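Loading example: each entry is read as four labelled lines plus one structure line.
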Amino acid sequence: MVRELLKHLLKRPATLKYPFEKKPPFKGFRGRPIWDMKLCTGCELCYKVCPSEAIEMIGKGLEAEFKHHLDRCLFCGQCEEVCPVNAITMTEEYELASYDRAGMIIEFKREEKASEKPIPIR
Amino acid sequence: MSYPTIRIPFGPQHPFHIEPEYFMFEVDGERVVGVKPRIGYVHRGIEKALEDRTFIQNLYLIERICGICSHAHTTCYTQAIEEILGAEIPPRARFIRTIIAELERIHNHYLWLGLAAHEIGFDTLFMYSWRDREIVMDLLELVSGNRVHYAMNTIGGVRRDITPEIVEKIRKGLDALEERMRYYKKIAMTEPTISKRTAGIGILKPKDAIALCAVGPTLRASGIKRDVRADDPYIAYDEIPFNVITYDGCDVISRLFVRCDEVFESVNIIRYAMHHLPEGKIRIKVPKRVPEGEAVSRVEAPRGELIHYAKTNGTTKPERYKARSPTLGNIPSLCKMLVGGYIADIPIVIAGIDPCFSCTDRMAFVNVNNNKQWILSGEELRRYAIKWYRKE
Amino acid sequence: MVPEGIVAFLEILLFPGFLFFIALAFFYEWVDRKFFAKLQNRYGPLYTGPSGLLQPFADFIKLLSKEDITPKAADKFMFSCAPIFMLSFPLLALFLVPVTGLTAPISFEGDLIFLMFLFTLIAVTIFIAGWSSVNRFSTVGGVRAAFQMLGYEIPMTLVMVGPAIAARTLSISQIVGWQSHNAAWFIWLQPIGFAIFVLCLLAELEFIPFDIPEAETEIVAGWSTEFSGRKLALIRLGKDVELVLAASLITSLFLGGPNSSLSILAIGFFLLKTTLAVVLLTTLRALFARFRVDQMIGGAWKYLLPLAILQVILVQLGLGR
Amino acid sequence: MTEETTEENEIVRRMKHLIGKNVLESEVPRPRRIFILINKKVFTKTVRYLTKKMEFSHVSTITGADVGKEIEVIYHLNRGGTIELSLKIRVEKDKPVLPTITDLIPGATLYEREVHDILGVIFEGHPDLSPIILPEAWPSDVYPLRKEWTIKKIQKKVTKGGKR
């Protein structure tokens, strides 16, 4: 035990100085989902399958627009899996905390190349 | 002559355990003479909620019964539903489930070792084992895409495949994990302060263990060879050779050794499974509606036997779903272990069964979100506090 | 020429007085935390000041600004007094230890006995603090502290007597002087005594193998559970000063003290040796799991006490002087 | 189901031999699983027989389920870690009373309290049926897992009862 302790005197600490040093997530990490509205056909599958009612759908069919409630999202990736046209992708974003629930609703609109409201982080 | 006893509350908030649980101890000096547990503080009403959601949605709710044994819970759930459906999942999916299950066991035992070390005040060992736990968490993230809620299981198979590169990385990680656990076992055997605090503490005789229906490593540390993986093989355990670890010390250090040795077994199981990983599909398509039926499904979660009972009625939602986690099964024996011990030994004895109270409390349902009177916002809380202080 | 009164006043207030010791207390808390973290493969305090040097001070300021709660059922007078005693006793004891030269600011024949008395008072204060908060955890913690004192007090006193017999004096300054004069440190002459002394100091400081009175996972924060705000700040500072006291006692009794009459060099030696002592205490803290109170007392009476007596006998027979 | 002479079928046969017509339904859906529905009258006798004579000494859990007019209480008994026997008993919703099994298997204490909490089944002879998972202030006539208590109804009731 003593030897183990002394060995660590010369080692670099295992912890990271978090806000300054970040560990990149692995490939395939399930982070914040985004909708590609150019592909979306409005089939409602993602809206129906979501276990935590995080996806809100406004309008129907090809006019449908989405509100993603980040505060309710489980990041399970079921919507990505269920989407028949692969319009949903899970990004590698993981720093999604916010002081305000209202700021955690992300809208995905049809026109203007799927304008996406930036999320206020920190 | 009898002395007056004092009552010492442990919990609902107490630094010995992160989860809110309440034990009222009757104490005579430093000796515990009585104990009364009260669970239910993290009661989220999952069983009622399950009846209100579709089978796919339930998959993710079930996963959230517990943060550590999330894979065990979903394995149990998918097994039950697949049994009712009569679906046979592909062999590759079974092996992948096994690999994740064993990685989860390694993760849980590392976590437990750190917690146990912390309970007896050995902070250095706590830091080391949690640092090394990071290796297995990284592996799980690599395989599944998340550190805690792996979401690997789905009804009819698994959602992600394990590629050869991942296999290589897991192999490397396993070597490191095995070596570190060997070292920790050596420390536990040689370090006198550890054996002083854990040997002969929290005795659970085999007779009591059976009568009080103990499960998992707690039971195996009392010398009873009972493991769902061997007795009632599920997923790929009937094709993989492994040993059931038992120790007959009946005390906390035996539970420690059981968990250490189980890590070695798990490492071997994963190596075998990765070597014999069959080719083929990883999932099959299953219908949304589940026919009427019922099934009992059992899984050896890292903490012990997990049993789920499912009853379906031919719709897309279950009629009744019951989950019983290992901790609930171990609480009666825990009370038995605690009586007669010292106050100082309470934390390590409670930690000895590896309790997970989130798993334990999960039943009826009050939707707190829609029920404004049940929650206080930050502003309300502040006002409440000011009012309270004015009164003083 | 500055009048002598003012010099004495400044000596008490600034150097080597209150301010110096308090600054040193913060510094040693940092050394302790940083080294402990290093041993555990962590960073430790990092952001306040250069590599977290000001972190203990920042903690102190933060606690001062926090709300100060006194439980309704508590014995208010004793509850308020305990933190003051917790700080003042070790601070007073530090004046008996030579820092700038071979003599301490306060030095008289028999100050070693006075120091032992102060040590006991600290333990009694802890008991009173626990008892007066009328909280179950505090009460248990206070009782444990008193129990623990029964264990380590006697061996510690005995091993402190060892150097005194060898140097034929009961004054700490003269013990330091003897070591300096004979160019021999008691750590080499009385190794058993040194080991026992360090172990007893761990118990006195409530460091890990013996942090029984404030065992976090068992009884929340033990005797200090109910203290908050300013009181907790004083208690924490008191504990830090106690760490300085422990380190400087190890230095003066066993490591030869500030081994020079030149004051700059003496301070340098003092700082070096006390830092080494703190590092030693920290390493031991990282090395063990916590004992149970009965095991601790049993061990102290079964092993430490006979060994301490053996050490005294050896000294009497002429070995180790 | 083919009537092979497996261990499971043997158990069912012996049960039928013991209590005859009181075995209302029995099923062996797969190896190591048995479902048996028995009459309430012979409950104590059956459990005593199972625990003492057939080594079903481990109770995995007790499930309660609402099946319309009746409440189904399922005892998941286990033998040596392998065979899981689900013993079902139906009791009327109006008068849900069953004898306790804690005298035979002490480990069933918490499970019985749990079923009492959520479905209101009273286990006669149980030492302490105080709430275990529901809060103390929970209204005494609300049994959350009974089907007539929908989530909305529970909310309404509990808010009214538990006003701050």
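Chain A has a mean pLDDT of 79.
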